[in-house]
Amino acid sequence: xxxxxxxxxxxxxxxxxxxxxxxxxxxxxxxxxxxxxxxxxxxxxxxxxxxxxxxxxxxxxxxxxxxxxxxxxxxxxxxxxxxxxxxxxxxxxxxxxxxxxxxxxxxxxxxxxxxxxxxxxxxxxxxxxxxxxxxxxxxxxxxxxxxxxxxxxxxxxxxxxxxxxxxxxxxxxxxxxxxxxxxxxxxxxxxxxxxxxxxxxxxxxxxxxxxxxxxxxxxxxxxxxxxxxxxxxxxxxxxxxxxxxxxxxxxxxxxxxxxxxxxxxxxxxxxxxxxxxxxxxxxxxxxxxxxxxx
Length: 294
Ligand code: SF4
Hints:
Layout: E1 5-6, H1 9-14, E2 29-30, H2 34-45, H3 60-63, H4 67-76, E3 81-87, H5 91-97, H6 102-118, E4 124-131, H7 138-150, E5 159-160, H8 168-175, H9 196-206, H10 214-223, H11 245-252, H12 265-282
Parallel strand pairs: 3-4, 4-5
Antiparallel strand pairs: 1-2
Helix pairs in contact: 4-6, 7-9
């Protein structure tokens, strides 16, 4: 975001909050995105510039504070799809990432769809999620998988957390404690998914639609006492019987959509191509930093 800052340098110097936007947007943070709208307009007026497209990098909880900004973005600067990163649906991992709840995503989605319709444009949001982040339990991943299914998404590109330098999540990963709050021996213990088996399972929940993951998911669901989610009906997460990849693809590909792909196959293939090239350019990341001050 552009030109967001604390309203006072004096306040900022003495501020001890780890984030200006979590657990809520600080009242001292200037969230006005009008300067960014002006920047877009100036950039469009530069001679030789035909089009400026923004594909990702948006802090949607701040964007919704200036609906005119979302309108400008959606009307002029989205080229069919926009990647945003709710990261998760559950409070456990979201609180460790200092990210807003999934309700804010819904609010942004509403504005995105409203302004896309007004502009007469068919365009889609691509939400990204992460598996294995500190603070995530098996149950959190199950709830995320159920949310994905209920909302008709299939995660094509999946991020799995790896500890990287200078991230508070890395401190959580190694210590099992939450450094975003005062740490002592009685302070909050953070669930940290570790080991190949649990990390694979968390990733499998994100790709619940992949037949390769069904045996592992069936086993985990039984262990979690959720046999009710195994079956061949619409309310089930994984089928009772093992289908082949091709059969699943034929029967399901346009019934669900991660990647925000439309149900219309012609548009789907065009957007799929765009997504693949986007992934090659920069999003093949397995590493996700989080917990940095924004
Ligand atoms: S959290 Fe951010 S906006 Fe709020 S007082 Fe501190 S520096 Fe300023």
